[in-house]
Amino acid sequence: MLLLTLLGSEIPIKYDNQFNYIMTKNQARKKTRELIRRSTDRMRENLERVFLSGAVNLPSYEDNYVLPTAIMLALLKEEMTNFQPTNFSQYKKQIKKDAKNIYICM
Question: Is the pLDDT of residue 6 over 80?
């Protein structure tokens, strides 16, 4: 492991045998939290679009969680399309495999 000195602080940089950066737990957490923040921001915007579009007939629903659950499923479905590995085509198989393994652990 190498140490990068930046503004007087030493930051550990991990490499594998081919000198590729290795993700640390803190980096993974930080990047995942950023994706979650972006995703929730988009979901909030889309929630407002749902009500502005007239796609939902509010008087036809009882005051329970049926409509919110349907909206949440639609929002999550939309978010799934935002996370399709199109920008990382060389990693597409790895991303799908890793996501499946991670999902099993939840």
Answer: no
CA-closest candidate to residue 71, choices 47, 53, 48, 88? 47
CA distance 52 to 40: 19
- 24 contacts 16 by C-beta, under 8 angstroms: no
Whether 4 contacts 10, CB under 8 Å: yes
Write out the two tokens for 12. Answer: 């550990």
Q: What is the pLDDT of residue 5?
A: 43
**Contact of 60 with 67, CB cutoff 8 Å:** no
What would the pLDDT profile of 73-93 be if each residue is shown by its tens digit?
999 999 988 877 666 677 788
- Record the tokens describing residue 89, joined without a space: 């085509």
What's the pLDDT at 91? 79
Separation in Å, CA 90 to CA 51, 85, 96? 39, 9, 12
Q: How far apart are CA 71 and CA 50, in angstroms?
A: 8
